[in-house]
Amino acid sequence: MRELRLIAAHKPPYNRRSRFPEKGRFLKLTVEPWPRFSLVRRVTEDGATYLGPFASARSADQALEALHEAFPLRQCADRLPKQPARTPCVLAELGKCLSPCDGSTTLDEYATVVARAREAVEIGAQRVVAVLSDKMEALAEQERFEEAQVHRDRLHAYVRAASRSQRLTTLAGVAELVAALREKDGRWAIHVIRHGRLAAAGVIPPGGDAHDFVATLRLSAQSVTPGPGPVPAATAEESELLLRWLEQPGVRLVHVDGIWTCPVGGAERHSSSLLAVTESRQSLVPARERRRLPMLARP
Questions:
Q1: What confidence tens digit (pLDDT) does each residue in 85-104 have?
Q2: DSSP for 126-177?
Q3: 230-257 exposure pattern, b = at least 16 Cβ within 10 A, e = fewer
Q4: Is 270 helix (H, G, I), strand (E, B) or coil?
Q5: Distance from C-alpha of 16 to C-alpha of 241, rounded to nearest angstrom
Q6: What is the pTM of this model?
Q7: Helices 107-122 and 126-141 sit at what angle, rounded to 10 degrees?
Q8: Do residues 170 and 267 lie in contact, with contact meaning Cβ atoms separated by under 8 Å?
């Protein structure tokens, strides 16, 4: 944790990771009569729904394409009035947009699709996984493997981002969480986490009173202001590090001020299967990298 904070503060030139946590990207489901997904640099308190952060623009674009495959929301950047009247774009002619610009859909019909898209960002992933899986299967049957690979990469980027975002959002919403884990030497390590940031940590000394130690640690812990919207008060890497610690076997919750939950139908349930596919793919040698076998002399 200290290393992550020092790298973010001093930005050493030879650290490729963790140096610029403020440069993360987010997908934003806008708040307007005809909402759309937009790629933004920061989260604001505007009531919008956010997915992220993404480490690169490429992964954000892939996740955006996955969402557009499942939900035909408009992709134009213009602000549309409640009663727009103009010529539809090519996406509308291809059936990839509900085309609110020419009156092909009503506000209520469009709002229904927006609600499903918001659910795919906040609490669920089944719709996006099902749509892209069907597309990949159909393309594979037609032996269009390169196109299927594009959809696979989009699905992987979306599931990874949704899982990360959903887990970070739930932790960021907890005002204070105190957890304990027995270390190998038998002593208890205590962590005080506030809005996704480590506010205090300590180890109960041998013979010490656990209740008094926890109470003192909470009183001396850092005051933490919640981050904007669903963003933790720390960097995403810090909060993920805390989540990995909290999810270890043997961790006990001592105190929770708020509600710490994880959606049952969230993206995390799909992460393990996609990770297994990715690791399997990486273990294979691509055709372009295969070396020719040496010619052996016949006996």
A1: 677 777 777 778 888 888 88
A2: HHHHHHHHHHHHHHHHTT-HHHHHHHHHHHHHHHHHHHHHHHHHHHHT-SEE
A3: bbbbbbbbbbbbbbebbeeeeeeebeee
A4: helix
A5: 18
A6: 0.81
A7: 90
A8: no
